[in-house]
Predict the structure.
Amino acid sequence: MITVLVTGGAGFIGSNFVRWAHDTHQDWHITTLDKLTYAGRLENLEAVMHSPRHTFVKGDIADAAVAAPLVQDADIVVHFAAETHVDRSIQSAADFLTTDVIGTFVLLEAARQAPRLRRFVQISTDEVYGSVPTGHSVETDELRPRNPYSASKAGADRLAYSYWATYNVPVVITRASNNYGPNQFPEKVIPLFITNAIDGVPLPLYGDGLNVRDWLHVDDHCRGIDVVIDHGVNGEVYNIGGGNEVKNVDLTHRILELMGRPQTLIRPVADRPGHDRRYALDTRKLQGLGWAPTVPFDAGLAATVRWYTDHESWWRPIKDQDAAFKAYYAAQYGNRAKA
Ligand code: NAD
Ligand code: TDX
């Protein structure tokens, strides 16, 4: 058996990856290490919870007593665990530094003493390039992160690289664009807007709505990570982008159209401070390893709308009953509406 440690596997992308990898790789034993923050949901792992090829460990990646033995027992580490929401990093950045930077440092230190480790996949993000008004980011571009989340992720990205260059830890780094699909926490724009539309609640569109994101279906992301595990070169960075550049306002129109809800639900609100205008990735390097995105955006978005419509029991308790989420929502959106 190949022993695979997945950090942050109870979150959105991590749980999609764990479920996908569990079904795809019969010779993998997967251990999920997750602190179960507000974003980590055990129900995301229901499908694998009773499998003999999956073990769940509740713990903090920044706690070496828990994390180091798991890293040292692994053949492959896929490191997703992070604080991930830009707006929360603007409200308060401390957890982003503790988890995204120090947590990554703890895992990398452990990786120096991991006898069988052959891959340490650092899951970075397209946000580390900063705003890209024209063209597409290539892996060698300068990093210009502009918010506390992306700055923390850029720190972790380069720290991971340094452990390859300095200590020969077998690090590969992936930088994906905006993911969408099932099990995404309803603070992120697509699930927030779908669930607000279901409830007939306004969709808070930041600024002029002309910011552009490149949407990647989470299944295509999982396959991209898998290709990097198999064929990537240590010390290298791989962009993973969907090639679906969409303005936020157009995305919002499409969601409402798909749902048969009125466009009048759109509520322009005050912009996010330091709001990156556009991300766009050049993915030719990963395509050279045999990967290509397969999920057309319209079909993927329609399937995502259906998933949230069919899985109200997954998100309804978060939005309606979770006091912490309600407090976050009030702080984020309460005073935002423009006159
Ligand atoms: P998420 O917020 O849905 O999940 C994060 C998971 O990490 C949760 O299960 C949480 O409990 C866990 N976690 C947080 N702090 C932890 C800690 N200290 N110790 C152990 N577990 C901890 O995030 P996501 O959207 O699935 O993102 C996963 C990774 O992918 C992150 O590294 C993120 O930066 C990166 N990424 C995300 C996107 C995107 O569009 N969502 C795009 C590119 C890269
Ligand atoms: O209420 C909103 N209104 C709005 O207009 C929210 C939550 C977002 N937006 C806009 C801001 C962005 O331009 O939608 C776009 C997407 O926002 P988010 O879903 O918050 O994602 P983003 O900030 O682009 O970051 C995401 O992609 C890169 C993930 O959250 C990161 O973890 C990942 O690294």
Remarks:
- Residues 2-179+217-240 form a domain with the Rossmann fold fold (CATH 3.40.50.720).
- Residues 97 and 152 are 6 Å apart (CA to CA).
- The chain has a mean pLDDT of 97.
